[in-house]
Amino acid sequence: MAKLSFLSCCRALLQSNILYSPTQSWVTRKFILVSKSVKVGNRQFGIFGSFTTEISRKEQTTQLGKTPHNQNSLEAVRQSWLDFLQTVTTGPQGVGYLLGASVRVSYFTVMSLLGLKIVDNMNQLRKSKKRGISLELWRLIVGMLGECLTACRQDYSNIRYGYYKLPPLPTRRWNDILPATLDYLLDVRMVQARRRENRYREIPPLINSDFPEYYKRNFHFQTDGYLSEYSAKLYEFQVEVLFNGVADVMRRQALVPLFNYVHSHSIKHMKLLHVACGTGGILSDLAENYPQLRIVNLDLSPYYLREARRRHETYSNTYIRFVSGRAEELVFRDNSFDVLLNIYLFHELPPNVREQVAKEFFRVLKPGGMLIFVDSIQEGDRSDLNRLLQMFPQIYHEPYYPSYVKTDLKTLFESAGFRSANIYISWLTKVCVFYKP
């Protein structure tokens, strides 16, 4: 009761203008919202010039409901926080989710700021030599927090509707998070050094050289690319820092179409193939919600597969397998799986390989099977984020990303034989559902 009373007071305070009006007035006086640019290494990028103009609210309707996108940064964050509180303060489960989400977002936002501070006292990310967070980063951070709150509200709504269970509190994984924190902070300078000098071929000597050329690089400028145990242990932490702690939240949107499919079919002998599973970011959610589901996880990196197996040893009673292999040459027979799940792969594939992978997906799915495709949003999905989509591949070394954001996914998969169904949007993530006739 005390927690609920406290949250009710917070909600009432935010609904009033006691804090908001003077804060907005002060920020308006101190920060004139004009278009700026960000310098990263020797490159100059424009950032969020759209904050300078009056942008109307854009409603995007998905299967999960309506999500307003408003670029008035302080107003958007305030409204997102109000909507979030209103959604979660409906019972004890909501309070638990609020606690977990707040700890997670706050922690990884702080890690993001520490990472920026370590990089030469942020000299690479501002024009002036004044100390402190620059105007560009202030706008970006505030805007991202608003988006995080909206994504969390969407996530909790799915939990309330019964699409999936409440995820465990982050305290359950502190034994992984704390060592990863130290490794991340030590690794930041090495990542920035590669970014500044555009070095992306610093991968370890390979015992097995049977990797495609497009794969042998430092994606995101991360140490060792995807080809070392060190990289595998650090990867999930780096992704959460990048997305301010809501990477898992966005991945979980894939469980909505899976719920609908499972409850209209028999799960007794159902098999799911998870292509490009990485270190298994969504595997715990799959195992906890569907312990009877037979899950086969495939990835090209043996190091990431070993880390995925280690992180999910507690699910030993669940049917989970790990297989090494390429997505464009799947090592399974035709018509083998009922569901195929693919998360954050296609933006790291060359265009011709994407076509091969789509055909392989179609081949291994059973007739009537479902493909759940999860990846970055594309140009036109969120017009207010188009500038960010242009910056991302240059700052994080994603050479195939510019072609991905322009790819017509519907045409790509229908050419492979699929029939398109629904599309879900959650901030920077897009979920597309396709069926094999």
TrEMBL record:
- SUPFAM superfamilies cross-referenced by the UniProt entry: S-adenosyl-L-methionine-dependent methyltransferases
Record-level GO BP terms: methylation
Keyword check for Cell inner membrane, yes or no: no
Can you say what this protein is called? S-adenosylmethionine-dependent methyltransferase
A GO term for molecular function: methyltransferase activity
* Chain ranges of the Methyltransferase domain: 273-369
Q: Provide the organism lineage as a comma list.
A: Eukaryota, Rhodophyta, Bangiophyceae, Galdieriales, Galdieriaceae
* InterPro entries attached to this UniProt entry: Methyltransf_25, Methyltransf_Superfamily, SAM-dependent_MTases_sf
Q: Which PANTHER family match?
A: METHYLTRANSFERASE (PTHR42912), METHYLTRANSFERASE DOMAIN-CONTAINING PROTEIN (PTHR42912:SF81)
Going by the UniProt record, its keywords in alphabetical order are: Methyltransferase, Transferase
